[in-house]
Amino acid sequence: MPIHLNYQGTTCKKCGAEFIAHKKNCQCPGCGQATEEFCDFAAQTIATMKDHKQLYGNYFPESWFSGSAADLVQGIIFELFDNLEAEKPEDVSVFIISQLAEVGWEDGREGLAGQTEQIALEVYEIYKNDPDFHGGNLKDRPLDPKLNSLNPEPPAFDN
Ligand SMILES: [Zn+2]
User: Fold this and answer.
1) 59: helix, strand or coil
2) CA-CA-CA-CA torsion for 127, 1, 110, 46, nearest 10 degrees?
3) Model pTM score
4) DSSP 8-state assignment for residue 34
5) Statement: residue 151 has pLDDT above 80
6) How far, in Å, from the CA of 62 to the mean position of ligand 1?
7) If you measure from the C-alpha of residue 35 to the centroid of ligand 1, how many angstroms do you get, rounded to a whole number?
8) How far is CA 132 from CA 23, 59, 126, 159, in A?
9) Cβ-count burial 114-153 (b if 16+ within 10 Å, e if not)
10) Ligand 1 centroid vs 14 CA: distance in angstroms?
11) Which of 28, 78, 81, 128 has minimal Cβ neighbours within 10 Å of its Cβ?
């Protein structure tokens, strides 16, 4: 089972747009209304990327249900980093921006485009300096026990 955050996204009290409060004192990208909500979204996305890599061999899991704005943004970032590792671009910032430009946004969620770009660049800043993502460290590490319970063995049959 893929791992979803408890945070689903923030709904603007003024204009109703959904966005990710990924910084302290974040403002709605639609109307500029400030929110007190905060989710350390890049760090949490990094943690989920590690778990998914161990469970599935990819950041994007076998199936991913985007029920919330947070799921939507994370799904895009998982796919982006799978593509990044497959293509190994020389200029990562350009690669990230050009990949994200191809994403089609639903009406009312266009404000997430700029946020997703900022978050993807924040994720990359952590990713590039985190040895877990380089040199096969995640593959060789024993599975965290919490992940075993997410990926249970098929039930044994009593004969
Ligand atoms: Zn707003």
Assistant:
1) coil
2) -10
3) 0.88
4) B
5) no
6) 34
7) 9
8) 24, 13, 11, 43
9) ebbbebbebbbeebeeeeebeeeebeeeeeeeebeeeeee
10) 5
11) 128
